[in-house]
Amino acid sequence: MFNTRIKVKQLLLAETVGQQVTVMGWVRTFRNNQFIALNDGSTNNNLQVVVELGLLDDATLKRITTGASLKIVGEVVESLGKGQKVELKATTVEILGDCDAEKYPLQPKKHSLEFLREKAHLRFRTNTFGAVFRLRHSLAFAVHQFFNQKGFVYLHTPIITASDAEGAGEMFRVTTLPFDNTPRNADGAVDFSEDFFGKSTNLTVSGQLEGELGAMAFSEIYTFGPTFRAENSNTTRHLAEFWMIEPEMAFFDLEDNMNLAEEFIQYIIRYALEHNLDDLTFLDQRLEEEEKQKPAAERAEFGLLEKLRFVVDSQFERITYTEAIQILLDSPAYKKKKFKYEVGWGIDMQSEHERYLVEKHFKKPVIVTNYPAHIKSFYMRLDDHCEPGKQTVAAMDILAPGIGEIVGGSQREERLEKLQARMKEMHIPEEEMEWYLDTRRFGTVPHAGFGLGFERIVQFVTGMGNIRDVIAFARTPKNCEY
Questions:
Q1: What local confidence, expressed as pLDDT, does residue 81 receive?
Q2: In the chain, N or C: fewer CB atoms in 10 Å?
């Protein structure tokens, strides 16, 4: 029976000296025809297996290569070597799967992240990606645990939708219409009545609008699922397919929203620190080596573990958009023309501006509120008291070191007439959104919510510089492997 095996992580932690155990895993290295470093993915730490000379014939020894999979039965003994308390003295070694050493891409040496992106189907077997994806798992578990403990309902919002929650139009079309003989109306437009759903549909860019419907019944819901943006952006921060966490809360205002988002971020980071310290320590050391290669002026202020503990233990700074713009205008970076993008009231702040506020000015996470209405979505609540010509909305973005925006949210516009006016102003057809407007017609309440890009928080916690390295199989422009 295979399920009698003990995992490497458990064996290394448990007091098992003298016990007979079965382990299974993949060979990382095999030295002197005697010492196997075995790993099963449960931890970055390898189990040293000692094979006594003469136990195996030459043919079997030649098959124990890096990448081969083994089943080993043996006795746990105290280790004489450095770095581990115990090792396994093998009594039987069975090869489950051979691995051609000359063809196997992951040789026991350092590989670049670029190379490993091309071998994404194998990169999970490396220490770096083992740590990253165990952390991704823990963070996902912590997300559900946080909201469950607070009594939120987990709502599965649709992946195929007829609405564009962001109004940006950067959507992937879903259709069964033939490309070579597309049905068209008299005016030449595509006749979507012939399509599978009888109308134009696309992959969702957000579960927010549907989430609001749930919040109007359950008070507090959250979604956690894949979202899609057909944005032709080849950067280290963007993906075409990514995962979003989107809570929606009835009877919440902007301040309640900020409080929840800050508590949420600190909770899931704390969970990772408590449950994945080995992986974080490995990534901290990895990042330290990476930082040494950079010019002194470009090095991060904090190490990874130091940064995470600082975020967990610090109150986030809270400023308005207007205050943020003034800080940027007064900054040495602006005066010395170091910003690539212009600064002024009304701009949509770029990553360089956000990172300046977080990394140079406040040196901690920052929540920016009350953005200009014209750069934000139609559903955000208009602020009641504004300067002439400077209409703002009750929006909030959380900015994090190394990344910039990590959370975007707002109090939603609960007043029907004002929401209808905003939709008209932004050319959003009211007839297509009657279902959404009904939440304002029938028992409207003040409510709020936010969205957190899951890959962004995984990037932040792992210290990985490229968002493509924190999702198993990245979907980006001109790239859809596997």
A1: 74
A2: N
Six-digit token pair at 62?
């030649």
In angstroms, the first-to-last Cα distance of the chain is 32
Global pTM reads 0.94
Average pLDDT estimate for 433-449: 97
The full length of the chain comes to: 482
- Identify the three-state secondary structure at position 276: coil
d(CA 276, CA 270): 10
Which residues lie below 8 Å from residue 99, measured CB to CB, with a gap of 6+? Answer: 27, 65, 66, 67, 68, 69
With beta carbons less than 8 A apart as the criterion, state whether 425 and 229 touch: no
Q: How large is the angle between the packed helices 416-425 and 434-441, nearest 10 degrees?
A: 150
Residues 305, 73: Cα–Cα separation, whole Å? 37
**Alpha carbon separation from 461 to 8, 20, 272, 376, 401 (Å, rounded):** 25, 38, 8, 28, 11
Tell me the H-state helices in 56-204. Answer: 58-63, 113-118, 127-149
Rounded to whole angstroms, the Cα distance separating 203 from 163 reads 9
Contact (Cβ atoms closer than 8 angstroms) between residue 287 and residue 304: yes
What are the tokens at 227? 């979202």
**Which amino acid, residue 99?**
C
Residue identified by tokens 């905003």 is: 422
Distance CA 123, CA 117 (A): 8
Question: Which pLDDT value is given to residue 163?
Answer: 78
